[in-house]
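# step 3/5: fold
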Amino acid sequence: MPTEINWTALSVFVFFFLLVTVMGFAASRWQSGNTNKGEKSLDEWGLGGRQFGTWITWFLVGGDFYTAYTVIAVPALVYAVGAYGFFALPYTIIVYPVVFVIMPKLWKAAHKAGHVTAGDVVFGRYNSRPLEFAVALTGVLATMPYIALQLVGMQVVIKALGLGGEFPLAAAFVILALYTYSAGLRAPALIAFVKDLMIYIVVLVAVVMVPMKLGGYAHVFSAASDAFAIKGGATGLTLKSAQILPFATLALGSALAAFMYPHTLTGIFAAKSADTIRKNAVFLPAYTVLLGLIALLGFMAYGANLHITNNNDVVPALFNALFPSWFSGFAFAAIAIGALVPAAVMSIGAANLFTRNFWKPYVNPNVTPSGEAKVAKTVSLLVKVGALLFILFLPTKFALDLQLLGGVWILQTFPAVVFGLFFGWFRAPALLTGWAVGLAGGSYLAYADGIKPVHTMVIGGDSYTVYTGLLALALNIVVASVIQLLLGKRGELNPSLSKTA
């Protein structure tokens, strides 16, 4: 990585960063006339007035689903372990049928009763403050390290520009905090247009030009194959037989967890209609194609004969080595802006959860809509500061470890959030017990395995390696079912949400 400032790349980077900063502050006026609620309600600040149509939702959901850390981490994982790193592709294929079936129902439940968060929906259906609080607390805990990892993506590209110290990173997130405070969800929604366009340009240029510079894809795959052969172990261009089950369960578990996160649900609740969500479930797989192309950059690093000390440096090192400085600056700006969009939505989602599912029920039940918006704005700032401190004073590996745990945790909210949309057999005590056991069991297994995402079981002398979050979810559902059978009767749902399909 460079030790001197690349002034050409830095100039291009700063130009595009300033462009999205101006857009972020201007976003407070964008579409604000579409509702009568003004800027003073949480609906307006936290969900953009629930007025986002198909294309805005497509960019927003894609923008906070495919993050800067994705652009950095997926090629880094492929560079490190080969084909196993491609589990993100089937995961993003599986997730969209899940979205098509589940999310329109969840949107209807939220829209009908004015719910802003998953915790609101859970309370509206089960009338249980403890279950509501459990869902909200899990969402906030799972989101914090996720925001911190966006900073990892920004750190990598800032370092690639030759900038040292923590000031550039802190300055970028101060700017993010200010325009998110001012414009709410409209800021990342508007910036997502620019971010996605830039990412598509960068990736399409890379997958065409890099192989041309390196002698074609045949050379790329040959160099990667030779490198993996030297490494040995579980690396390679194709999956080893022992990797198939963990690969498949990682994809399935990640797909079920993806839209339980507060930031992805925020994008869903902000949509104009259930049909908008269904259309997006059809269009969003275009991002899967993009993700596959991004993953190939990990193989291309071998073709370029790069020597790096940190796997996360793969993509910036590749662009610095093979492209002129101005294009490297453009690419790094795209990655950095790709951190701003999801980080903004994540902080808004966490702030919405705190405001609606902690502050309002436990601190100030009579808070006005304007008061809710003020609390959420303040909390969104605190969340960003917390994530910044997290990454500045704790090792990056710790943030990554907690994000892996976050996936296990957020998956345990799936029964409480989703099951009631389709049948009313479960009562709140059963779901709460299942959540607690799944959360504790999943955390224990992950900790015992050294904070790895998979766990190996030995059954009848044969070993099976499975995604830890999926094991914890199975335990969650089994325990909830047993408790429900012991309770002996079906619980009554809130009449206002008993029919949401």
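# step 4/5: annotate
Confidence is low (pLDDT under 50) at residues 34-39, 495-501.
# step 5/5: archive (pending)
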